[in-house]
Amino acid sequence: MVGLLALLPADGVPRAPAAARQKWVTVWTASVQGPYPSGNASAQPNLSRVFDSPASGARDQSFRLIVRPDLWGREARFRFSNVMGTRPVTFDGLFAGLQLDAGTIVPGTNRAILFGGKRAVTISPGDSAWSDPVGLAFVRDPAAAELQGHKLAVSFHVAGESGPMTWHAKALTTSYVTPPGAGARGQEESEAAFPFSTTSWYFLDAVDMMAPDTTGVIVAFGDSITDGTASTLNGDDRWPDVLSRRLHAAYGNRAAVVNAGIGGNRVLGPAEYSPEKPSSGGPSAGARLERDVLSLSGVSAVIWLEGINDFGANVNASASAVESGMQEIVKRMRAAIPGVRVIGATLTSALGARGGHGSAEEDEKRKALNAFIRTSGLFDGVADFDKATIDAETGGLRPEFVPESTTGGAGDRLHPNRAGYLAMGMALDLRMLMR
User: Fold this and answer.
1) Cβ-based burial of 356 (10 A; exposed 0-12, middle 13-18, buried ≥19)
2) Beta partners for 221?
3) Are 199 and 257 in contact (CB under 8 A)?
4) What percent of the chain has pLDDT over 90?
5) CA geometry: angle 226, 47, 82, nearest 5 deg
6) Could you give phi then psi for residue 16, rounded to 5 degrees?
7) Which of 219, 255, 238 is nearest to 423 (CA)?
8) Where are the beta strands (DSSP E) in 141-293?
9) First to last CA, the chain
10) What domains appear along the chain, each with residue ranges and CATH number?
11) What is the DSSP letter of 397?
């Protein structure tokens, strides 16, 4: 890893050639929900010894979140969120370094994250804050093959007690936490202070990098089938991950793919969502659109896969209502981001599934919405995930796409496994996304 380090100017920020125009692009995101523990985590360890109670949240402890940027740059910035909190939260001891393995950091790569030149920031309930630019000294060449697939370790300390925590439940990536009362430990390169693991992300909801101004950002917007339920823990094999690898193989670093899925999310509801009245699927697609899509940096395309949770037995919305909701949300996307390409994704089958899904009535609504997505002209293109995963004989998912990849077991017939997500990611026509 020493080969990644270079001689740098005194401020630690490598200089791009004067002629190269750069801009911020979002290279990682995790749509926030909450407060913890409201949500659908996967393979989550027992956290009863990590967080005293949901009401008190984190208490004088440090987090080391592991995130995989879809592109690298010589400068990064980080967005921290207290959107679902009920009291101000103070973060200090913030650092970002190159992950070596588990909770350890490559020696010499850890860099302080500042806010307005200060080492601490207090974020009010309902707000978020972007950090100052952070020079990543180990990034000699953002396109270098040795960087691809590597992950950042973003560490921070919650000073005092956070109260209800803003989080993203289904990270499907292992991160690390100190015990309560451990203090600020983010500067340490060792994992010794971080004995507890979690498969969720907390407070951090976006990472930007500086990249050429021709770089586009493709947002995968949706529910648990975008979030990656039943894919492989730490495997990075959700369908957006597959799409990312294909795009980079074909076009290099011209685009980044970021995941804005939330397990259980819906197009239309819930009508009300707040820290005092959360639901496990997070805010509706319309309610979170500004934060999770429109506010991200450099967005050029959105792939939207959503609607099955609107049709479940516990909600039972009509297909026409979901179609109307989609029309309104796409209108907002186009108004906020001129020239954005919006790709509609057909819903995969849930026929025979458990837990409020699987009925013939639900499947008829799914087919009606898919027909709308394919033929209405609302979208700039179609990602036909239904065609890629359907078993023509049964009308459900193909049987090889059902067994669960994270914790094992028979699968739920709603969420594709790794093989199913691979088929979905391979089914996308890349030409829809690139200009």
Assistant:
1) middle
2) 260, 304
3) no
4) 92
5) 60
6) -80, 155
7) 238
8) 152-161, 167-168, 175-177, 196-198, 201-202, 204-212, 216-222, 255-261
9) 35
10) 22-206 (no CATH), 214-432 (3.40.50.1110)
11) B
Q: pLDDT of 356-384, one tens digit each?
A: 999 999 999 999 999 999 999 999 999 99
Q: Write b or e for each residue in 2-14: b if 16 or more Cβ atoms lie within 10 A of its Cβ, otherwise e.
A: eebeeeeeeeebb
| Token output for 190 | 């060792």
Residue 164 CA to residue 84 CA, distance in Å, equals: 7
H-only helix segments in 55-212: none
Sheet holding 381-383, edge to edge: 255-261, 216-222, 299-305, 341-345, 381-383
- Cα–Cα distance for residue pair 222/29, rounded to 1 Å: 13
Tokens matching residue 175: 């991160």
3-state secondary structure of 91: strand
Q: Where are the beta strands (DSSP E) in 323-425?
A: 341-345, 381-383
User: Tokens representing 26?
Assistant: 């979002």
Lookup: tokens for 400: 């090889």
Structure tokens at 293: 């899509």
| Angstrom distance (rounded) from CA 311 to CA 316 | 5
Q: Please give the helix or strand (H or E) that residue 336 lies within, else none.
A: helix 319-336
Q: How far apart (Å, rounded) are the C-alpha atoms in residues 68 and 307?
A: 28
What secondary structure letter does DSSP report for 241? H
Give me the residue label for tokens 């599934």: 353
Kindly report, residue by residue over 73-99, the tens digit of the pLDDT: 999 999 999 999 999 999 999 999 999
Q: Which H or E element spans position 159?
A: strand 152-161
The Cα-based distances of 143 to 15, 112, 227 in angstroms read: 15, 24, 26
pLDDT higher than threshold 50 for residue 113? yes
Residue indicated by tokens 């996967």? 42
